[in-house]
Design goal:
Elements lengths: L8 E8 L1 H9 L14 E2 L5 H16 L2 E9 H4 L4 E3 L6 E3 L1 E2 L3 H6 L1 E11 L1
Antiparallel strand pairs: 1-3, 2-6, 3-7, 4-5
């Protein structure tokens, strides 16, 4: 009898601008691009509302458009990153060091998808 282990996933969101989104699209919607030297941390967020606020209130003024993406990551892998509260009760992030982004990307299950767009 074959036993197939189903991966348990956690849904994460990432607010992003057009440049980063173009790089995600170039990966066929499977990976986040390497961080720039001034970006030592990749921070996906734990709820859509917080991602919406960043995309709408920060990305739109900075680049004319903001996107909210949603993706699934292997829950067991995510346990290495403590949840960070970056403000109020619902402002929750994971802080992934830039040098660990390849490993993080390898644990994305399925595709990264755009779920909201603001202009």
């Amino acid at each position: 009898m074959n036993s197939v282990r189903k991966t348990t996933t956690t849904t994460l969101w990432r607010p992003t601008g057009p440049e980063e989104l173009a790089l995600v699209e170039a990966s066929r919607w499977t990976a986040w691009p390497p961080r720039l030297p001034e970006q030592p941390i990749f921070y996906p967020v734990l709820n859509e509302d917080y991602a919406v606020r960043i995309a709408r209130d920060w990305n739109v003024p900075a680049s004319g458009v903001g996107y909210v993406t949603r993706f699934e990551v292997d829950t067991e892998f995510l346990r290495r990153y403590p949840v960070r509260q970056a403000g109020g009760e619902t402002i929750l992030e994971l802080w992934v060091p830039a040098e660990e982004l390849d490993a993080f990307n390898a644990h994305i299950v399925g595709r990264i998808e755009v779920v909201r767009e603001f202009r």
